[in-house]
């Protein structure tokens, strides 16, 4: 008989079920598998969204009917490709990445996936490229995915609000961090930044918000979803 899961490492169960669900629900995807291989070969950290989470991003683009998407934090473009592939014809993604070496890998991956003309990868600290985007009249975006340096999440929320319109969706990644966000004594900047981000989401009368905890291949974490009123 199977070992009761209470006696096992729960993270192993989460990963096993994630694998099962991904196998059962998602088609084989050589393009996305190649992206992860390329990222690994280039030495990028394996902190992309999981396959099922990426598919959630695709579905959010489809459900919301988004045509213009802004991503803060590109890494190798794994989440970017999920966002781009769900767009209608003529849709665009602008994705912001600080590390030139990440942006280079992302551009190559995105080009190979066939979205070179859909995705604009902008290199620089997002707090520099966001004002540029605003000055260009780059908004309004229909969906914003916030997934970069967590201490700046409260600032990214302010920029997301400036660059969106009523009805836009703002998604935040990594808001649970294995429960650390609820541990008041944990004052690491990534955690306090996330906590301030959550507080700002909860207090902002311009937003209608929820959070979703997730377990799976990437451990225990979560997303926020916010719609601009
Ligand atoms: N969205 C990606 C993962 C992003 S990881 C995916 O799921 O596939 C976070 C990325 O944010 C890293 O590539 C990191 O270099 C970038 N980053 C960190 N600080 C940043 C900043 N200040 N401005 C823009 N990007 C930043
Ligand atoms: C980290 C960042 C992420 O965006 C993520 O999804 C997982 C981990 C990190 O900085 O550790
Ligand atoms: Mg993330």
Structure in words:
It is a single chain. This protein is of the alpha/beta class and 229 residues long. It is 43% helix and 23% strand. It has eight helices and seven strands. Strands 3-2-1-4-5-7-6 form a seven-stranded mixed beta sheet, with helices on both faces. A hairpin with a 2-residue loop joins strand 6 and strand 7 (219-228). The chain is globular, with a radius of gyration of 17 Å. It starts with 9 loop residues before the first helix and ends with a strand. The site of S-adenosyl-L-homocysteine has 19 residues, from helix 4 and strand 2.
Question: What would the keywords be for this entry?
Answer:
7 strands, 229 residues, alpha/beta, 8 helices, binds 3,4-dihydroxybenzoic acid, 23% strand, binds magnesium ion, binds S-adenosyl-L-homocysteine
Bound molecules: S-adenosyl-L-homocysteine, 3,4-dihydroxybenzoic acid, magnesium ion
**Silhouette:** globular
Mean pLDDT, nearest integer?
Answer: 97
- β-strand percent reads 15-25%
In angstroms, what is the radius of gyration?
17 Å
Compute the number of strand runs.
7
Structural class: alpha/beta
Distance between the termini: 52 Å
Low-confidence stretches: none
């Amino acid at each position: 008989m199977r070992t009761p899961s209470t006696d096992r490492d729960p993270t192993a169960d989460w990963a096993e079920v994630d694998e099962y669900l991904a196998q059962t629900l998602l088609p084989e995807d050589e393009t996305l598998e190649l992206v992860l291989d390329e990222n690994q070969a280039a030495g990028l950290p394996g902190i992309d969204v999981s396959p099922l989470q990426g598919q959630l991003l695709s579905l959010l683009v489809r459900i919301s009917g988004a045509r213009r998407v802004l991503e803060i934090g590109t890494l190798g473009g794994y989440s970017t490709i999920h966002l781009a592939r769900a767009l209608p014809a003529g849709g665009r993604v602008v994705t912001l990445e600080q590390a030139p070496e990440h942006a280079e890998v992302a551009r190559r991956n995105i080009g190979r996936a066939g979205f070179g003309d859909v995705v604009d990868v902008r290199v620089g600290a997002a707090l520099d490229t966001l004002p540029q985007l605003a000055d260009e009249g780059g908004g309004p975006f229909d969906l914003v995915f916030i997934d970069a340096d967590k201490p700046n999440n409260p600032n990214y929320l302010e920029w997301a609000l400036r660059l969106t319109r009523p009805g836009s969706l703002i998604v935040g990644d990594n808001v649970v961090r294995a429960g650390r966000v609820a541990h008041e004594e944990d004052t690491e900047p990534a955690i306090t930044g996330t906590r301030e981000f959550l507080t700002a989401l909860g207090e902002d009368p311009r937003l209608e918000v929820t959070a979703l905890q997730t377990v799976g291949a990437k451990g225990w974490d979560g997303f926020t979803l916010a719609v601009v009123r």
